[in-house]
Each structure stands twice: as structure tokens, then as C-alpha cells.
């Protein structure tokens, strides 16, 4: 938890940070139980600290309490997904159209995320692929240069990762997005903001349709 400590977070915030990163990394999936005793050992924290961390994640919409089961990683509904994409359109499109111009450092972070996603696809590690693709979109929102938006969007990314985990065939679900991420990045490099915004809108529309179809199928089964 060294990064969190350097940022001056409380112990509960540190545990919540690590749990959130485990969700983004695809290590904690929708429906997984979050057993206090296991978390106490795994994160070397007190039971009260773990409980507070789980409460924080519950307020963020990442965990939920189920009677007779305890706290689990949240399962998102169709309405949740629609709300997520409304937020994504607002922030990502706004970042492209009105955010700071792309500079070398931001471009390099986007390129690193795309390259990592490509390497993951070559290894057929689709869980990692989804995480790296979302990291690219975090860098897009980063063009707004707003720490508050960055923090908020981290939670959105974590919730999106829970959507991915519902896919029965992650290869089929994830594979089409790499070329589109790369295309958006190239448009930003070339300074074509309007075209990049249109490409992002198309991307998010298609992604939302796919996510809603995925959840609808999962609900029927």
C-alpha cells in the first residue's frame, strides 16, 4: 500500500484503494464474496479498518450487502450500465473537445496503455486487455487536468470492469476495441479534435449496446 501511504490516505482508504485496484485489474469479479477474515489477513489490516473500507466501496457502488451472504462485489444492472455510459459520454467527450491539447507526456501514457493492451491480446490475456483499455480511457479524461474528475472516473472504470467480468467470452467481447482506441489516439495526435470526439461517441455507443446486450443475456440465463 506504499502509493496510498505516500498520498496520506487513512488505513481504511488504503485498503479501499487496494480493493478498487483489484477490481480494475480483474482480480475481484462481480458476485465474489468479500470475507472480512480473509481481507484482514490479505491486507494486514484490522477488522474495523476492513469494515470501513468495505463501507467506502459500498458508497461508491462497488460492493453490496446480501442477506445471509455478507458483502459481495456488486453485480451491475442494465440501469447501472446506462448510467455509467451517460457519465462516460459526458467526461470523455468533454475531455476530447475542451480539454488540454495532447502533449508528449499524455500521449506517451495513452500509447503505453494501448501497447500493453496489444501485448495482452497477443498473450490472449483478455482480463488484462480490458484493464489496459480502460487505462487508456482514464488518460483521455486526464486531458481535463482535474484531480477531482480523475478520482471520480477511477470509480467509473472500476464499475466498467465489473461489466466486463460478466462476459462469457472475453476474447470476443474485448478484441474489437484495440484498433478503435489506437484510432482515437492518432486523431488526438494529429490535432483532429472534432473527428476524435465523433470516434469516441461512436465507440461509446457501440460499447454500451454490447454491454447492455451482455447483461440482458446474463439476466435471461
Automatic annotation (TrEMBL):
InterPro entries assigned to the protein according to its UniProt record, in alphabetical order: GntR_C, TF_FadR/GntR_C, Tscrpt_reg_HTH_GntR, WH-like_DNA-bd_sf, WH_DNA-bd_sf
Residues in HTH gntR-type domain copies: 9-76
A Gene Ontology molecular function term of the record: DNA binding
Alphabetical keyword list: DNA-binding, Transcription, Transcription regulation
Secreted keyword on record: no
Classification via Pfam families: FCD, GntR
PANTHER family to which the protein is assigned, alphabetical: GNTR FAMILY REGULATORY PROTEIN, TRANSCRIPTIONAL REGULATOR, GNTR FAMILY
Protein name from the UniProt record: Transcriptional regulator, GntR family
Protein source organism: Pseudomonas abietaniphila
